[in-house]
Amino acid sequence: MRVLLVDDHELFRAGLALLVKALFPNVELLHASTLLGGVKIATIEHPDIVFLDLELPDGHGCDALAQLKIARPSVPVVVVSADERLETVVRCLELRAMGYVPKSSSPEALHAAIHAVLSGGVFLPAASIAGLRRMIDADEKRAQESGTPPPERREAPWNTPSFGLTPREFETLAWLVRGLPSKAIAAKMGLEDITVRKYISHLLAHFNLRRRTELIVMLADKGITLDLPSAFSPAPGRESPYAGPQRNS
Questions:
Q1: CATH classification at residue 235
Q2: Residue 163 DSSP one-character state
Q3: What integer pLDDT is reported at residue 120 of this predicted model?
Q4: N or C end of the chain, less CB within 10 A?
Q5: Domain with 122 in it: what CATH number?
Q6: Which residues, in sequence order, are CB contacts of 54 under 8 Å at separation 6+?
Q7: How many CB atoms neighbour CB 105 within 10 A?
Q8: How many domains, the chain?
Q9: DSSP per residue over 213-229, as a string?
């Protein structure tokens, strides 16, 4: 497994590298101090996951994430940033980040983020989840006031195998969580893009949601992890954190 760390602060990269190594001793770590260098390495070396700082010498804010995802749409990206504003977190989720970790977080939080993301889940800090839920509730209230009917409310199938999804829907969800756009998911699954878009619509309806961002927040809030390709298997001697759809306690 290859993990790319993109940050212009060498000390922070070294600390993050130690946390990744603690989980996966045999991981191959790649380093970049600029966006250009990160994009080049991501394109040539094909890392399995990228940890990305937003404030780089040649990349400012969410533009850094956008440029990386343009170069490598399929690569899972976790943002690690000093910017803790809720609007920045939302924008990164819209740009298909797989997680968001404030640099003010404790080492335990970074450890939790690495474990969640490499297990096929999404990591967001508790404060961001609370703020995002307030935003979602406010959006839904405005939609109702404007006459837009809300999604049909029913109990979410958290305790059923694969959440009550078909195998294709569940596979779509697993790739969606990893930050893949519909075209990349279609290529992975050998389907037409329009078919994957239909699956995504079915997923949102299934979970009573309106947008992909709401789906990501929901998964992060409930600590759900999903199956990932074998490249994400833990190092020998470590118990796999994944045994089907899970809720973190």
A1: 1.10.10.10
A2: G
A3: 82
A4: C
A5: 3.40.50.2300
A6: 60, 61, 62, 64, 65, 79, 81, 83, 88, 92
A7: 17
A8: 2
A9: HHHHHHHHHHTEE----
